[in-house]
Specification:
single chain, about 400 residues, mainly alpha, two-stranded antiparallel ribbon, 17 helices
Amino acid sequence: MRKAMYHFEFMQFIQNKKNMLFLLLFLLSTVFYMIYTVPTQEETYQNHKLSFNLYVDSWTEFYHALVKQEKEQNNGYTELNIIYYENLELLLAAIQNRDIPNYIKSSANHYRILIEGTQNGYSVIPENYLKNFKYPFQQVIHDYNKARIEIEALSAESNINFSELYALTSFQQMRLWIQLLFPYFLLLFVILYGNDIFTKDDKHKTIMKSIPVSLYRQVNMKSFIVFIFGFGSMVFVILCGLVVMAIRNGWGSLSLPVVRYIRDEYDVISTVMFFVQSFCLLILAAFLLIRLCMLLSLLLRNEFITLFFGVALLFSEKVYQDTFFIDNLDVSFFPNTYFDIGNVVTGDKSVFYQNNYITFPNGVIVLATSIVVVEVMLYIFSTFRFNRFTLEKKLVKRGKVEA
């Protein structure tokens, strides 16, 4: 019986045209991103060389003025900017000669100088930081530190090429995608897969009413199908994207460093560890949203309202992160804070909010706790509804017998 029920639910899911359409869109958007958005190594190298050459040229006149000024009046600002320009020339020479060891060394010095200049007030904070971040000074220092530590960690790797320096390889692009929109993209598809999981049963009322299984058990089966199909889709699409990217720029290495910020300190983890931690948070977040969709479907019996509430929860963090009241609330207790999975693992989310409690372990605890709360509500409501339905059937049957 159980096997037949799983088969029935699975066939219902597969035959749902909406689910197949979303899977196709997911696949096409991933392949499009990998082919048309990410350039090849040579294209990136040539563009970088050209843009960096223009940048150095724009500094030349200012540099000569600084050298003249230094002879008349020496100060920290003048001295640091002269050092900055001279390091730019070394960096440009390393790029032009494809000299990776000197490129790494000069890049690390480049970020050290930027950090010192920003901390001493010699450098202007870029405008995009002022617009997009609540704490722009802390954010720009953090980004410079991350870049410096990562480039220094790369020096310990053997056989580094420009594809890996520019983060163009298949595994590196996957890492960057996880830090951008991929988790939201996947979780949105989970919601789209699960929002009509109960309403479509209205087409098979006779079959569903004849199933001798509790409603909570039916909920579990439906959740299992959505979960397996959702992550099966994810694995399939990721593999397609990774293969396309590997053909263009190579696979890369799973041992490449990823810089992580935890409680005012930096450390380095491997790319494979980043994937493992991200996958753990992704599983918890997806399961939470699936069970929430089940609960809303039972309560509302309307796929559009369920979809609305699911999407609202998924993107609610993007709404409140720029509002004033986050100063008075600890967002580390909100489960939707941890939907930005890649940035939680790397600690970027912690820097954004200046909250040291937004970490991977806390994310596991908060999401797991939220799942337990939703699970209890789901169990209580589904049990109550099933018992009520069973009682009504008995009363109807008794009434027919008496009649």
